[in-house]
Amino acid sequence: RQGCLSALEMLAAMAPLNDRLEQEAKEEGRKHIPLRVGLGLNSGECVVGNMGTAQRMDYSVLGDTVNTAARLEGQSKNYGVDIVIGPNTLVQVPELATIELDIVQVKGKTEGVHIFALLGDEEIAQKEDFRALHDATNEMIAAYRGQDWKRARDFVGTCRGLVSEYRIAGLYDLYETRIDDYEVNPPAADWDGVFIATTK
Fold this sequence. Notes:
It is a single chain. Helix 5 (128-145) packs antiparallel against helix 6 and helix 6 (149-160) runs antiparallel to helix 7. It contains seven helices and seven strands. Strand 5 (97-105) and strand 6 (113-120) form a beta hairpin. Helix content is 48%, strand content 18%. The longest helix has 27 residues, at 2-28. The chain is globular.
């Protein structure tokens, strides 16, 4: 929970930081390139502490949990969201505003992992527009995994009409592209809906 709230605070700090950097760029007569961050959160056992040798020592964190978190961070840009969390994190923050993204097999893994977007705190989670977006996204993903492409596409349209307050529109672009492709080249009948990521 503290990690999730910290991630949300990091995002909230980006707008005023970019405003300040933009003002500095104007004053110095140079082009401003906005800073963007993507975050990945995962929960589980890991090794934390000073590691290395007397010649080279570093405070670090290691383990499969950490590797997965790094892969989730890398998926933030692919799914068009700011914060991606894994299933072990999700179960610990049921009160926060989360939306399922996909089941993805990340680089270095042999099985798919459910991934979710963290969009806000408890207050956001209770908003009517968020609940509508959450439910419509679940319907879209269910239709997609059931290979009901028309129904999935209809819910993509519904979701697009609900995203105005949330930075998640890229998710629906991604699914629309996949649906276009699967309509022409359908997956196997026993397809499990897992997307195999080819990039970190």
